[in-house]
Write a structure and sequence with these properties.
The protein contains 14 helices and 22 strands. The chain has helices at 11-15, 32-39, 52-68, 91-110, 126-135, 151-161, 206-210, 218-230, 256-266, 283-291, 308-314, 320-333, 352-365, 392-417, and strands at 3-7, 24-26, 43-48, 71-72, 81-86, 115-120, 141-143, 164-167, 175-177, 188-192, 194-195, 214-215, 235-239, 270-274, 298-300, 338-345, 369-374, 421-429, 437-441, 446-449, 459-468, 471-476. The longest helix has 26 residues, at 392-417. Bound molecules: 5'-deoxyadenosine and iron/sulfur cluster. The site of iron/sulfur cluster has 10 residues, from helix 7.
Amino acid sequence: MKTKIINTPDLLKAASRKKEVTNFCVANAKHLKDLKPLAKGKKYYIRTYGCQANVRDEETMRAMLEDVGYSFSKEVENVDVIIINTCAVRENAEDKVYGEIGNLKRLRKKNKNLILAICGCMVEQPEILKRLMDTFPEVNLFFGTHEIAQLLDLIYDCYSSNERIVAIESKQGEVVEFIPDCRNNHYKAYVNIIYGCNKFCTYCIVPYTRGKERSRHFNDVIKECQRLIDAGYQEITLLGQNVNAYGKDLDEGKDFADLLEAVAKLGIPRLRFTTSHPWDFSSKMIDVIAKYPNIMKFIHLPVQSGNDEILRKMGRRYTREQYLNLVKEMREKIPGLSLSTDIIVGFPNENEEQFQDTCSLVDIVQYEAAFTFIYSPRKGTPAAKMEDNVSKETKTRRFQELVKHLEKHIEEYSNAMVGNTYDVLVDGVSKTDENMLSGYTETNKLVHFKGDLSLVGTIVKVKIKESHTYSLIGELVNG
Ligand code: 5AD
Ligand code: SF4
């Protein structure tokens, strides 16, 4: 099969942050009419790895595919289009993708017209793209996060040219409004408010794969939230790699605190946001969170390390003291606040003392939830070029030690919830016990309890009976 290269990735271009005006546009397929008869009666399968931005991208792709006539299939067998939406943030996320494609390539042998596509952050790194292209000749479409708006045209190209297509442009990116809208969930929704990232933390590949920070227009976000409320949604999560930077690239005179307040005022029962960089988390934002009962008292505030030298090498732009002062202000102004974080263990040359600073910070902050990672070098990032004298065994040992520090408080927090009653937004049948329902409290604690399926998508009161560190068992409170 011949390969048609439309664009290939280039990390230097991806890292450029020129002061260009952001291009705002609406997704528009050139070949919509031609594709419709080809798509009619056909099925697609999509599998997403990684963060909420990828989950939202999946929804966007689903909307486009369904608009043109494809229908969604839960099973991968006997479909006509397969899309694997990848994540590049750590090596283990990538390994899963290699495994999955390895299992899928047999399907192309069975169906020569199958479109097997890989998209997302992985293919935006030149060496990974090359490896994927060499290892899996069965994959006939590669596209990046910036090409999602062109998905239908790319699929049409695959049908009409019978070539393998590579369309991955490294660029700062634009703001594309997608019409129609599609949601995987009918009571909880993600709403993008800002794309990309300008922070360039030295370990992170995201600023290269997702482009520059670019905010959606204030009114476009508000309109989307209003539509969700009108459709009966119970929860909105405002989404961005760094939501705090919202509006800084626009001249609309609005910042994230203004947007958060405006969405809260629309009256959605539960409003969340993620992710927040501690560097530009303003007091104004804290005040807005404290003021509105429908803004959930849950903040994800990645710290990454508790040591100043490591924070500096990570390019995080705050010190341990500044972070702790921010936490203090949040805890003082927002009663009942639940804090979660991300922490990386084993950054290049991290020594024992520096690691212990992270453990002591964890003991001070007493996070209610946390995600912990072992550092994974990402080719093309500054940290990947740093010398690293920390052995794998030491990193693993530290990882386990850190988890113990974190779990101590998480367990205490869970135990303290026993006997109290909480509002829970019911998600569905529990993944661990089909006789139970599960849902989340306002502070994002997972609760399992017995109840009727008709409760899914509603907010109910649940009295907590048992605590299991990361989840709780409760009982529905009638009335
Ligand atoms: N290695 C390990 N963890 C990483 N993260 C980002 N890049 C890396 C990396 N190279 C983690 C950070 C970030 C979370 C989404 O993933 O903790 O906050
Ligand atoms: Fe990556 Fe840092 Fe941007 Fe988060 S803020 S996406 S860790 S570069």
